[in-house]
Amino acid sequence: MSNMITQYENFRTSLDSLGAYFSDDDIALNFLDIQSTKLKKWQKDIAQILKMARVISHANIDKRNDLSHSHQEIIKLYKESPNLPFIARPDMIIKNGQPKIIELNYDSSAIEGFYEIDYIQTLLLQMQEEKYSNYKLMDGKNSFVEFVKESFKIYISDSDSSKKMAIMIYADMNQYDKDIAQETASWINQNSDIKCFIRSHETLWDNNGVVTDGENEFQLLYMYSTLKDMPSKTKHLEELLVKIHNSKTIILSDIKDIVVDCKLSLAYLYEVANSHEFVFSDVEKNIICEYVPWTFVISKNKKVIYNNEAYDLIELLTSKQEQFVLKKAIRFM
Protein backbone atom coordinates (compact mmCIF):
# COMPACT_ATOMS: atom_id res chain seq x y z
CA MET A 1 0.00 0.00 0.00
CA SER A 2 2.82 2.39 0.88
CA ASN A 3 4.38 1.73 -2.53
CA MET A 4 1.10 2.64 -4.24
CA ILE A 5 0.86 5.88 -2.24
CA THR A 6 4.42 6.80 -3.24
CA GLN A 7 3.66 6.06 -6.90
CA TYR A 8 0.51 8.16 -6.69
CA GLU A 9 2.38 11.09 -5.14
CA ASN A 10 4.99 10.90 -7.92
CA PHE A 11 2.18 10.75 -10.44
CA ARG A 12 0.56 13.91 -9.01
CA THR A 13 3.92 15.70 -8.95
CA SER A 14 4.48 14.88 -12.64
CA LEU A 15 1.06 16.30 -13.49
CA ASP A 16 1.77 19.47 -11.53
CA SER A 17 5.05 19.95 -13.41
CA LEU A 18 3.17 19.43 -16.67
CA GLY A 19 0.81 22.24 -15.76
CA ALA A 20 -2.25 20.04 -15.25
CA TYR A 21 -3.98 20.32 -11.89
CA PHE A 22 -6.45 17.82 -10.45
CA SER A 23 -8.01 17.23 -7.06
CA ASP A 24 -7.25 13.88 -5.44
CA ASP A 25 -10.67 12.48 -6.34
CA ASP A 26 -10.69 13.77 -9.95
CA ILE A 27 -8.80 10.86 -11.52
CA ALA A 28 -9.86 7.24 -11.26
CA LEU A 29 -6.90 4.92 -10.77
CA ASN A 30 -8.54 2.13 -12.78
CA PHE A 31 -8.97 1.62 -16.50
CA LEU A 32 -12.22 0.95 -18.29
CA ASP A 33 -12.14 -2.63 -19.51
CA ILE A 34 -13.79 -2.42 -22.94
CA GLN A 35 -14.03 -5.16 -25.54
CA SER A 36 -12.59 -4.15 -28.89
CA THR A 37 -15.83 -4.97 -30.74
CA LYS A 38 -17.80 -2.66 -28.47
CA LEU A 39 -15.20 0.09 -28.78
CA LYS A 40 -15.29 -0.12 -32.57
CA LYS A 41 -19.09 0.25 -32.47
CA TRP A 42 -18.77 3.32 -30.26
CA GLN A 43 -16.22 4.84 -32.64
CA LYS A 44 -18.46 4.22 -35.66
CA ASP A 45 -21.58 5.59 -33.95
CA ILE A 46 -19.83 8.66 -32.53
CA ALA A 47 -18.37 9.47 -35.96
CA GLN A 48 -21.94 9.38 -37.27
CA ILE A 49 -23.07 11.70 -34.47
CA LEU A 50 -20.33 14.19 -35.37
CA LYS A 51 -21.59 14.25 -38.96
CA MET A 52 -25.15 14.83 -37.77
CA ALA A 53 -23.95 17.55 -35.37
CA ARG A 54 -22.38 19.32 -38.33
CA VAL A 55 -25.67 19.19 -40.27
CA ILE A 56 -27.91 20.38 -37.43
CA SER A 57 -25.51 23.12 -36.28
CA HIS A 58 -25.37 24.70 -39.72
CA ALA A 59 -29.16 24.53 -39.95
CA ASN A 60 -29.32 26.62 -36.77
CA ILE A 61 -26.42 29.00 -37.42
CA ASP A 62 -28.68 32.08 -37.55
CA LYS A 63 -29.64 31.45 -33.89
CA ARG A 64 -26.02 31.66 -32.74
CA ASN A 65 -25.60 35.09 -31.16
CA ASP A 66 -22.23 33.99 -29.72
CA LEU A 67 -20.71 34.04 -33.21
CA SER A 68 -19.72 37.43 -34.58
CA HIS A 69 -21.04 38.49 -37.96
CA SER A 70 -17.60 38.15 -39.57
CA HIS A 71 -17.20 34.62 -38.20
CA GLN A 72 -20.64 33.61 -39.46
CA GLU A 73 -19.77 34.94 -42.91
CA ILE A 74 -16.53 32.93 -42.97
CA ILE A 75 -18.39 29.78 -41.90
CA LYS A 76 -20.97 30.28 -44.66
CA LEU A 77 -18.16 30.88 -47.15
CA TYR A 78 -16.49 27.56 -46.27
CA LYS A 79 -19.83 25.75 -46.19
CA GLU A 80 -19.67 25.55 -49.97
CA SER A 81 -16.24 23.87 -49.84
CA PRO A 82 -15.91 20.06 -49.85
CA ASN A 83 -16.23 18.53 -46.40
CA LEU A 84 -12.95 17.77 -44.68
CA PRO A 85 -12.54 15.53 -41.61
CA PHE A 86 -14.25 16.77 -38.47
CA ILE A 87 -11.58 16.78 -35.76
CA ALA A 88 -13.12 16.85 -32.33
CA ARG A 89 -12.86 15.34 -28.88
CA PRO A 90 -16.20 14.33 -27.36
CA ASP A 91 -16.25 14.46 -23.56
CA MET A 92 -18.21 11.50 -22.26
CA ILE A 93 -19.41 9.75 -19.15
CA ILE A 94 -20.28 6.05 -18.94
CA LYS A 95 -23.79 5.25 -17.70
CA ASN A 96 -24.85 1.60 -17.38
CA GLY A 97 -22.05 0.60 -19.73
CA GLN A 98 -23.09 3.14 -22.39
CA PRO A 99 -21.15 6.32 -23.25
CA LYS A 100 -23.08 9.58 -23.01
CA ILE A 101 -21.64 12.62 -24.78
CA ILE A 102 -21.85 15.77 -22.67
CA GLU A 103 -19.72 18.11 -24.79
CA LEU A 104 -18.02 18.35 -28.19
CA ASN A 105 -14.63 20.06 -28.28
CA TYR A 106 -13.72 21.16 -31.78
CA ASP A 107 -10.20 21.37 -33.20
CA SER A 108 -7.78 22.86 -30.67
CA SER A 109 -8.86 20.59 -27.84
CA ALA A 110 -8.12 17.56 -29.97
CA ILE A 111 -4.33 17.96 -29.65
CA GLU A 112 -4.51 18.83 -25.96
CA GLY A 113 -6.87 15.94 -25.35
CA PHE A 114 -4.82 13.14 -26.86
CA TYR A 115 -1.59 14.55 -25.43
CA GLU A 116 -2.92 14.70 -21.87
CA ILE A 117 -4.82 11.41 -22.06
CA ASP A 118 -1.79 9.56 -23.43
CA TYR A 119 0.36 11.04 -20.70
CA ILE A 120 -2.02 10.17 -17.88
CA GLN A 121 -2.91 6.66 -19.02
CA THR A 122 0.77 5.78 -19.54
CA LEU A 123 1.60 6.87 -15.99
CA LEU A 124 -1.38 4.96 -14.60
CA LEU A 125 -0.32 1.87 -16.50
CA GLN A 126 3.18 2.11 -15.02
CA MET A 127 1.67 2.29 -11.54
CA GLN A 128 -0.27 -0.93 -12.08
CA GLU A 129 2.08 -2.59 -14.51
CA GLU A 130 1.59 -6.24 -13.50
CA LYS A 131 -2.20 -6.12 -13.48
CA TYR A 132 -2.47 -4.48 -16.89
CA SER A 133 0.56 -5.98 -18.64
CA ASN A 134 -1.59 -7.60 -21.36
CA TYR A 135 -3.63 -4.49 -22.14
CA LYS A 136 -3.09 -2.32 -25.19
CA LEU A 137 -3.51 1.43 -24.87
CA MET A 138 -4.91 3.56 -27.67
CA ASP A 139 -2.02 5.64 -28.99
CA GLY A 140 -3.32 9.13 -29.69
CA LYS A 141 0.03 10.56 -30.78
CA ASN A 142 0.72 7.99 -33.48
CA SER A 143 -2.93 8.10 -34.56
CA PHE A 144 -2.63 11.85 -35.15
CA VAL A 145 0.56 11.42 -37.18
CA GLU A 146 -1.14 8.75 -39.29
CA PHE A 147 -4.13 11.07 -39.74
CA VAL A 148 -1.86 13.84 -41.05
CA LYS A 149 -0.11 11.43 -43.44
CA GLU A 150 -3.47 10.16 -44.68
CA SER A 151 -4.70 13.73 -45.17
CA PHE A 152 -1.76 14.48 -47.45
CA LYS A 153 -2.44 11.30 -49.38
CA ILE A 154 -6.15 12.04 -49.86
CA TYR A 155 -6.35 15.83 -50.17
CA ILE A 156 -2.99 16.99 -51.51
CA SER A 157 -2.83 16.35 -55.25
CA ASP A 158 0.77 17.44 -55.78
CA SER A 159 2.34 14.53 -53.93
CA ASP A 160 5.66 14.75 -55.80
CA SER A 161 6.64 18.06 -54.22
CA SER A 162 8.20 18.49 -50.81
CA LYS A 163 5.49 17.96 -48.20
CA LYS A 164 5.17 20.90 -45.85
CA MET A 165 2.57 21.83 -43.25
CA ALA A 166 2.25 24.47 -40.55
CA ILE A 167 0.59 24.20 -37.17
CA MET A 168 -0.87 27.66 -36.73
CA ILE A 169 -0.82 29.16 -33.26
CA TYR A 170 -1.43 32.70 -32.10
CA ALA A 171 1.30 34.94 -30.73
CA ASP A 172 -0.03 35.32 -27.16
CA MET A 173 -0.99 31.65 -26.71
CA ASN A 174 0.02 30.34 -23.28
CA GLN A 175 3.34 28.49 -23.06
CA TYR A 176 1.69 25.15 -22.24
CA ASP A 177 -0.18 25.11 -25.56
CA LYS A 178 2.87 26.35 -27.45
CA ASP A 179 4.91 23.48 -25.99
CA ILE A 180 2.28 20.91 -27.00
CA ALA A 181 2.15 22.36 -30.53
CA GLN A 182 5.93 22.15 -30.78
CA GLU A 183 5.98 18.55 -29.56
CA THR A 184 3.25 17.65 -32.03
CA ALA A 185 5.37 19.09 -34.84
CA SER A 186 8.30 17.00 -33.61
CA TRP A 187 6.21 13.79 -33.73
CA ILE A 188 5.26 14.53 -37.33
CA ASN A 189 8.82 15.40 -38.36
CA GLN A 190 10.25 12.27 -36.73
CA ASN A 191 7.64 9.82 -37.99
CA SER A 192 6.86 10.95 -41.53
CA ASP A 193 8.35 12.56 -44.64
CA ILE A 194 6.34 15.72 -43.89
CA LYS A 195 8.14 18.86 -42.74
CA CYS A 196 6.05 20.47 -40.00
CA PHE A 197 6.56 24.06 -38.83
CA ILE A 198 5.03 26.20 -36.06
CA ARG A 199 3.75 29.57 -37.28
CA SER A 200 1.53 32.29 -35.87
CA HIS A 201 -1.18 33.56 -38.20
CA GLU A 202 0.44 37.01 -38.34
CA THR A 203 3.41 35.48 -40.23
CA LEU A 204 1.28 33.82 -42.92
CA TRP A 205 -0.27 35.20 -46.09
CA ASP A 206 -1.71 34.12 -49.41
CA ASN A 207 0.61 33.79 -52.41
CA ASN A 208 -1.35 32.95 -55.57
CA GLY A 209 -3.63 30.53 -53.78
CA VAL A 210 -1.08 28.98 -51.42
CA VAL A 211 -0.40 29.84 -47.76
CA THR A 212 3.21 30.92 -47.27
CA ASP A 213 5.51 32.41 -44.64
CA GLY A 214 7.79 33.87 -47.32
CA GLU A 215 10.21 30.94 -47.25
CA ASN A 216 7.90 27.91 -47.33
CA GLU A 217 4.69 27.13 -49.15
CA PHE A 218 2.35 25.00 -47.06
CA GLN A 219 0.05 22.39 -48.54
CA LEU A 220 -1.67 21.87 -45.20
CA LEU A 221 -2.46 24.33 -42.41
CA TYR A 222 -3.55 22.93 -39.06
CA MET A 223 -5.25 25.58 -36.93
CA TYR A 224 -4.34 24.89 -33.31
CA SER A 225 -7.05 27.26 -32.09
CA THR A 226 -10.50 28.39 -33.15
CA LEU A 227 -11.56 31.86 -34.21
CA LYS A 228 -13.73 32.04 -31.09
CA ASP A 229 -10.93 31.08 -28.71
CA MET A 230 -8.24 33.45 -29.88
CA PRO A 231 -7.54 36.19 -27.31
CA SER A 232 -5.56 38.18 -29.85
CA LYS A 233 -6.88 40.28 -32.70
CA THR A 234 -8.08 38.12 -35.57
CA LYS A 235 -8.67 40.62 -38.37
CA HIS A 236 -5.57 39.46 -40.25
CA LEU A 237 -6.56 35.82 -39.86
CA GLU A 238 -10.13 36.49 -40.99
CA GLU A 239 -8.82 38.25 -44.11
CA LEU A 240 -6.43 35.35 -44.77
CA LEU A 241 -9.20 32.74 -44.42
CA VAL A 242 -11.40 34.64 -46.87
CA LYS A 243 -8.59 34.83 -49.44
CA ILE A 244 -7.59 31.15 -49.23
CA HIS A 245 -10.98 29.46 -48.99
CA ASN A 246 -10.53 28.14 -52.55
CA SER A 247 -6.75 27.82 -52.38
CA LYS A 248 -4.50 24.80 -52.84
CA THR A 249 -3.74 24.82 -49.11
CA ILE A 250 -5.94 22.47 -47.10
CA ILE A 251 -7.07 23.82 -43.71
CA LEU A 252 -7.74 21.48 -40.80
CA SER A 253 -9.90 21.41 -38.84
CA ASP A 254 -12.58 22.31 -41.36
CA ILE A 255 -13.38 26.00 -40.78
CA LYS A 256 -17.11 25.38 -41.08
CA ASP A 257 -17.03 23.17 -37.98
CA ILE A 258 -16.48 26.12 -35.66
CA VAL A 259 -20.26 26.25 -35.47
CA VAL A 260 -20.33 22.78 -33.88
CA ASP A 261 -18.05 23.72 -30.99
CA CYS A 262 -20.63 24.15 -28.27
CA LYS A 263 -23.12 22.24 -26.15
CA LEU A 264 -25.96 23.63 -28.26
CA SER A 265 -25.23 21.12 -31.01
CA LEU A 266 -26.05 18.25 -28.64
CA ALA A 267 -29.31 19.91 -27.62
CA TYR A 268 -30.22 20.50 -31.26
CA LEU A 269 -29.54 16.82 -31.99
CA TYR A 270 -31.57 15.53 -29.06
CA GLU A 271 -34.52 17.80 -29.75
CA VAL A 272 -34.71 16.75 -33.40
CA ALA A 273 -34.30 13.08 -32.47
CA ASN A 274 -37.34 13.40 -30.19
CA SER A 275 -39.51 15.25 -32.67
CA HIS A 276 -41.47 14.43 -35.82
CA GLU A 277 -39.05 16.39 -38.01
CA PHE A 278 -37.56 14.42 -40.90
CA VAL A 279 -34.01 15.77 -40.62
CA PHE A 280 -32.61 12.34 -39.77
CA SER A 281 -33.75 8.76 -40.31
CA ASP A 282 -35.20 6.65 -37.49
CA VAL A 283 -31.93 4.72 -37.27
CA GLU A 284 -29.97 7.97 -36.91
CA LYS A 285 -32.41 9.28 -34.28
CA ASN A 286 -31.92 6.07 -32.29
CA ILE A 287 -28.14 6.54 -32.37
CA ILE A 288 -28.54 10.11 -31.08
CA CYS A 289 -30.77 9.00 -28.20
CA GLU A 290 -28.34 6.22 -27.36
CA TYR A 291 -25.35 8.54 -26.96
CA VAL A 292 -26.74 11.99 -26.12
CA PRO A 293 -28.36 12.40 -22.68
CA TRP A 294 -31.68 14.18 -22.15
CA THR A 295 -30.75 17.68 -23.38
CA PHE A 296 -32.82 20.71 -24.37
CA VAL A 297 -32.25 24.39 -25.08
CA ILE A 298 -34.09 26.33 -22.39
CA SER A 299 -36.83 28.61 -23.70
CA LYS A 300 -40.27 29.74 -22.64
CA ASN A 301 -43.37 27.66 -23.41
CA LYS A 302 -41.36 24.63 -24.55
CA LYS A 303 -43.13 21.31 -24.03
CA VAL A 304 -41.00 18.24 -23.29
CA ILE A 305 -41.41 14.58 -22.34
CA TYR A 306 -39.57 13.46 -19.22
CA ASN A 307 -39.97 9.95 -17.81
CA ASN A 308 -42.91 9.41 -20.19
CA GLU A 309 -44.79 12.46 -18.88
CA ALA A 310 -45.43 15.82 -20.55
CA TYR A 311 -44.10 19.00 -18.91
CA ASP A 312 -43.46 22.64 -19.54
CA LEU A 313 -39.66 22.72 -19.60
CA ILE A 314 -39.13 25.63 -17.21
CA GLU A 315 -41.75 24.31 -14.77
CA LEU A 316 -40.03 20.90 -14.89
CA LEU A 317 -36.61 22.39 -14.17
CA THR A 318 -38.06 24.43 -11.31
CA SER A 319 -39.94 21.58 -9.64
CA LYS A 320 -37.26 18.89 -10.09
CA GLN A 321 -34.14 20.99 -10.16
CA GLU A 322 -32.09 18.43 -8.21
CA GLN A 323 -32.41 16.03 -11.18
CA PHE A 324 -30.86 18.34 -13.78
CA VAL A 325 -27.64 20.13 -14.63
CA LEU A 326 -27.78 23.58 -16.22
CA LYS A 327 -24.84 24.32 -18.52
CA LYS A 328 -23.90 27.36 -20.52
CA ALA A 329 -24.16 26.69 -24.24
CA ILE A 330 -20.67 28.07 -24.81
CA ARG A 331 -17.55 27.38 -22.74
CA PHE A 332 -17.88 26.92 -18.99
CA MET A 333 -20.09 27.96 -16.12
Residue stretches low in confidence (pLDDT < 50, at least 5 long) are none
Q: What structural class should be given to the helix and strand makeup?
A: alpha/beta
DSSP E strands, number: 11
Largest sheet: 4 strands, parallel
- Fraction of residues in β-strands: 15-25%
Form type: globular
Question: How do the strands of the widest beta sheet line up side by side?
Answer: 4-3-8-9
Reading off the top of the CATH hierarchy, the class of one domain is best stated as Alpha Beta
Whole-angstrom Rg? 22 Å
User: Helix share of residues?
Assistant: 40-55%
N/C terminus separation = 38 Å
Order of helix and strand elements from N to C terminus: HHHEEHHEHEEEEEHEHHEEH
Mean pLDDT over all positions: 81
Q: Count of helical segments?
A: 10
CATH superfamily membership of one domain: Glutathione synthase, substrate-binding domain superfamily, eukaryotic
| Named CATH architecture of one domain | 3-Layer(aba) Sandwich
Quick rundown:
The protein is α/β, with parallel strands linked by helices. The chain is 42% helix and 15% strand.
Topology:
Layout: H1 2-18, H2 36-59, H3 69-79, E1 88-95, E2 98-106, H4 108-127, H5 140-155, E3 164-169, H6 175-191, E4 195-200, E5 205-206, E6 211-212, E7 217-218, E8 220-223, H7 235-243, E9 250-252, H8 264-273, H9 282-291, E10 303-306, E11 309-312, H10 313-319
Parallel strand pairs: 3-4, 3-8, 8-9
Antiparallel strand pairs: 1-2, 5-6, 6-7, 10-11
Helix pairs in contact: 1-4, 2-8, 2-9, 5-6, 8-9
